[in-house]
Amino acid sequence: MGDIMKRDEIPSSTSLTKCGVAAVGYTAAGIFLSVLNAISGSGFNLIGVIAGAAVLLIGLGSFFSKDPADKKAGSIIVAAGVLTLISKTGLPFFAGVSKFLLTAGAIGLLALGVINAIKFFRGLRKRS
Questions:
Q1: CA-to-CA distance for 33 and 31, rounded, in angstroms?
Q2: Distance between CA 112 and CA 24 in Å, rounded?
Q3: Does the pLDDT value for residue 56 go beyond 80?
Q4: Is pLDDT of 1 > 50?
Q5: Which of 39, 37, 35 is CA-nearest to residue 102?
Q6: What phi and psi values does residue 52 have, to the nearest 5 degrees?
Q7: pTM
Q8: How far apart are the first and last CA of the chain?
Q9: DSSP-H helix ranges across 1-128
């Protein structure tokens, strides 16, 4: 019964590409935040400080780009770097809040990646 579809229901290749790229990007960013959170550990740790500073510098480079999409991504990367550095302060409240935000961000990004992957595969199945 579902063999005949209206033209509107078949996703375009552009929308499929956007969903696929978004799925990969969100999943990679979620994994990166999880690794960054794990590297940070608790208390002062030099590797966590270096990783946070590196992420902060990379984010600043993207933030000062002329492309609006790069600015948005840069601000998110800067926030991740700042949160990583804050988690290294050794102050219990700030370290706890930043660890929570990094964990919540990683889970949110992974969820967005899964949602976009499901949209991509459903759209791909509709096209075949």
A1: 5
A2: 10
A3: yes
A4: no
A5: 37
A6: -65, -40
A7: 0.75
A8: 15
A9: 13-40, 46-63, 68-87, 92-127
Which residues, other chains included, contact 109 with Cβ-Cβ below 8 Å and sequence gap of 6+?
26, 27, 29, 30, 33
Residue 20, CB half-sphere, CA atoms under 13 Å: how many? 11
Give the pLDDT of residue 26: 87
Is the distance from CB of 76 to CB of 109 less than 8 angstroms?
A: no
Residues 6+ apart with CB under 8 A from 44: 88, 90
Give the Cα separation of 85 and 82 in Å (integer): 5
Q: What is the mean pLDDT of residues 79-95?
A: 80
Cα separation, 124 vs 126, whole angstroms:
5
Shortest CA distance to 82 belongs to which of 114, 66, 59, 106?
59
Higher pLDDT, 97 or 9: 97
